[in-house]
Design brief:
Layout (H helix, E strand, L loop, with lengths): L22 H11 L10 H12 L4 H11 L3 H10 L11 E6 L2 H5 L2 H12 L12 E6 L11 E3 L2 E3 L7 H8 L5
Parallel strand pairs: 1-2
Antiparallel strand pairs: 1-3, 3-4
Bound molecules: FE2/S2 (inorganic) cluster.
């Protein structure tokens, strides 16, 4: 899930001295990726993948760096990054808790399930715990409607989850403090 902060002409983005798009990444893009595509713009997604994979999210500085390297507008890179849920535009926790909010799960008790996760972690949807361990999001249908309500914790799907199950499921992936 990509989360976008409001931007404006006066917005300042956080910068660090060290580039996110490393010389090794540039080399890989040049040698392995560029030959596969007709345009540099088409290399946006592979470049974003590299950043997402290396850092767990896509900082605004990295979007600038990709744009400069590909010779495209930063807005074009941001368009792509904000469209796909797998690119994160802000840091996320070590563990991702995704509650399905689509209709079958909603009818089968999803609101109480989301509330149980919020209570257990002390955060709202879209937020990350202070210790950086958990991020909570809601997603559309996880394809597990027969086991509604469903919840995905990292790569593990849990079906027929009751609110009372939540503390145990969270404890399975790691303790946290908030
Ligand atoms: S509606 Fe929740 S898994 Fe399909």
């Amino acid at each position: 899930m990509a989360w976008i902060t409001k931007n404006s002409a006066t917005a300042r983005i956080a910068r660090r001295e060290q580039p996110y798009l490393t010389p090794a990444m540039k080399d890989d893009l040049t040698k392995r990726v560029f030959p596969r595509y007709e345009t540099r713009l088409a290399c946006t997604m592979p470049a974003l993948h590299m950043i997402q994979h290396a850092y767990g999210w896509v900082p605004a500085q990295a979007i600038d760096e990709i744009a400069a390297f590909l010779g495209v507008a930063p807005a074009e890179v941001l368009d792509t990054a904000s469209f796909y849920e797998e690119y994160w535009l802000k840091p996320r926790g070590t563990h991702l808790v995704s509650v399905c909010r689509s209709i079958a799960c909603e009818f089968c008790g999803q609101p109480a399930l989301t509330q149980a996760v919020k209570d257990a972690l002390g955060i709202d949807v879209g937020e990350t715990t202070d210790d950086g361990k958990f991020t909570l999001i809601e997603l559309e249908c996880l394809g597990a409607c027969g086991g509604a309500p469903a919840i995905l914790i990292d790569e593990t799907l849990h079906e027929n989850v009751a609110p009372a199950d939540v503390p145990r499921l969270l404890a399975q992936v790691g303790p946290h403090g908030h």
